[in-house]
Amino acid sequence: MRVIYTKPVDDPDQLLDPALAHTSQLFQEWIDKAYEVRALVVGNEVLAVRIDSDSEQGRIDWRSDYNSLAYERVDLPVEVEERLVELHDRLNLVFGAADLICDPQGRYHFLETNQSGEWGWLDKKAGLPVPRALADVLQKGPAWVR
């Protein structure tokens, strides 16, 4: 399997390549970033990690250079956490891994959420208590079925 990471489109004419018509594509506007955030929404709890990269490729797509990454547990602004919980509630998701960018002005930009997003390494690298949060939700049982 070949993994393709995010890369910038330097020339808009590249998008006219007829071969692109036969593939799935996702394009987004470039956002200057101070850092990225993986925010895990577990029930009504948000557990967030700041992700910084030392490499150019890692700054474009942090998944492409795990060795250049530094992790730090962070608290998001209350409004951002509330909006993430509301989104997951509206989507009827008890769990989601949301990716955000924090720009140099401190504004957060939502990229996506994934209902089966990876989190295991964040428990080890940043001390994120994801197993405890998941266990708490599971113990509450049907009350969390949305």
How would you describe what is shown here?
With 146 residues, the chain is of the alpha+beta class. It has a single domain (30-144), classed as ATP-grasp fold, B domain (D-amino Acid Aminotransferase, Chain A, domain 1, 2-Layer Sandwich), CATH 3.30.470. It is built from four helices and five strands. A five-stranded antiparallel β-sheet has the order 3-2-1-4-5, with helices on both faces. It is globular and about 55 Å long. It starts with 34 loop residues before the first strand and ends in a 6-residue tail after the last helix.
Summarize the structure.
It contains 4 helices and 5 strands. It is an alpha+beta fold. The protein has a single domain, classed as D-amino Acid Aminotransferase, Chain A, domain 1, CATH 3.30.470.20.
What is the beta-strand fraction? 25-35%
What order do the strands of the largest sheet run in, or round the barrel if closed? 3-2-1-4-5
Report the structural category. alpha+beta
- Give the helix proportion (percent range): 10-25%
Count of alpha and pi helical runs: 4
Instruction: Output the radius of gyration.
Output: 17 Å
Query: What order do the helices and strands follow?
Result: EEHEHEEHH
Shape type: globular
Q: Supply the CATH superfamily name.
A: ATP-grasp fold, B domain
The CATH class assignment is: Alpha Beta
Q: What is the correct CATH architecture?
A: 2-Layer Sandwich
CATH topology description: D-amino Acid Aminotransferase, Chain A, domain 1
End-to-end gap: 35 Å
Which sheet architecture does the biggest sheet show? Answer: 5 strands, antiparallel
Average pLDDT reading: 86
Which blocks of ≥5 consecutive residues have pLDDT under 50? Answer: none
Number of strands: 5
Overall structural domain count: 1
Organism: Nonomuraea thailandensis
Protein name: Glutathione synthase/RimK-type ligase-like ATP-grasp enzyme
Keywords: Ligase
InterPro entries: ATP-grasp_RimK-type
